[in-house]
Amino acid sequence: MEPVRFAIVGCGVIGRSHARFLQDVPGAQLVAVADVIPERARELAESFGCDWHGSVEELLRRDDVEVVNVCTISGTHADVAIPALEAGKHVVVEKPLEITVERCNRIIEAAERANRKLATIYQYRFEVPYRKMRAAVQQGKLGRVTTGDMYMKIYRSQEYYDAGGWRGTWKYDGGGALMNQGIHFVDQLQWIMGGVAAVKAYTGTLAHRIETEDTAVAAIRFRNGALGVIEATTTAFPGLWSRLEITGDRGAIVLENSQFRVMYWAETEEELDVGHYGLRLDLSAEPSRDIDIGDEDEGVPGHVLQLRDMVAAVREDRPPAVDGYAGREAVAIITAIYRSAETGEEVAIEF
């Protein structure tokens, strides 16, 4: 079977990561890369044995490119994705799909007009711990789910923001701690919980010289009626954790840095009898429950699994597992948090 031929636009850190991941995807072949800085494109091409171009336009004229991976800075994704779709290419866009819902919608509409496949990179959706967490919720293991919380307390230096010139800017990053780093876990939370209905938030720029927030907190109301919290910061020296907590009236799951801290639910009515004040779980112990989802992908990087899905989507003529609509969800939640912080009002999630 002929390989599905990929090209990468944007040859920085993320583009190089995509090139490396594609090497481990059966049925994928990297044939070309492009960057507005020709030297960077040439260096990446020489490292991975493919062609290079100094412009997107040159690359899109190639007949042998089937899929274009957009790895440019966030606020330029539509500027690359839409021409690629109009040129008849399938498109994979690194997170975020774009930095506003309106720009996400433009990409989605272009994909529908062109009848091409559009995927948004949310690699954690493919990794075993998060799939287990979602399966437990969907199968009702936790009973009536009542809270879903996300905490991302990491550290980024001032030099990190200064280095690229675009990080922490509204025009090109679309936000700060939430839109750049926290979006992965916002997506996981809403995916596991079944979507967010509304948010009420505060944001601040507390420890960096940037335009956007380095700290954000939000109360959230999920579509299923459950409540929750989002906290995200890049000020937590020296860097702590990213943590998801889901609780219900029969159990709870806590996932910290992709490792289970708590995975417990009552499997019998007798196990629900814990007295008036409940139990205090031993967090140093191994998780006491598990769920079978077929763990053959344990340890495989999420990017590899998602790019493998894109190859299958092209060959089988089906939508990618994480399409443009899925990519838009977290952007809508984060931009609603920004509006709430600005207005002081609860903001409903709208597309």
What does this structure look like?
By secondary structure, the protein is α/β, with parallel strands linked by helices. It is built from 10 helices and 14 strands. It has helices at 13-22, 38-48, 56-60, 77-86, 101-114, 128-138, 158-164, 177-193, 302-316, 324-343, and strands at 4-9, 28-34, 51-53, 67-70, 90-93, 118-120, 145-153, 196-204, 215-222, 227-233, 241-248, 251-256, 259-265, 347-348. Strands 13-12-11-7-10-9-8-14 form an 8-stranded mixed sheet. Strands 3-2-1-4-5-6 form a 6-stranded parallel sheet, sandwiched between helices. The radius of gyration is 21 Å and the shape is globular. The protein starts with a strand and ends with a strand. The model has no long low-confidence stretch (mean pLDDT 96).
Write a brief structural summary.
With 351 residues, the chain is of the alpha/beta class.
Give the terminus-to-terminus CA distance. Answer: 40 Å
Percent helix, as a range, is 25-40%
Mean pLDDT: 96
What is the fourth-level CATH superfamily of the largest domain? Dihydrodipicolinate Reductase, domain 2
| Structure annotation, total helices | 10
Largest sheet: number of strands, sense, barrel closure: 8 strands, mixed
Q: Tell me the strand percentage band.
A: 15-25%
| Structural class determined from secondary elements | alpha/beta
CATH top level of the largest domain is Alpha Beta
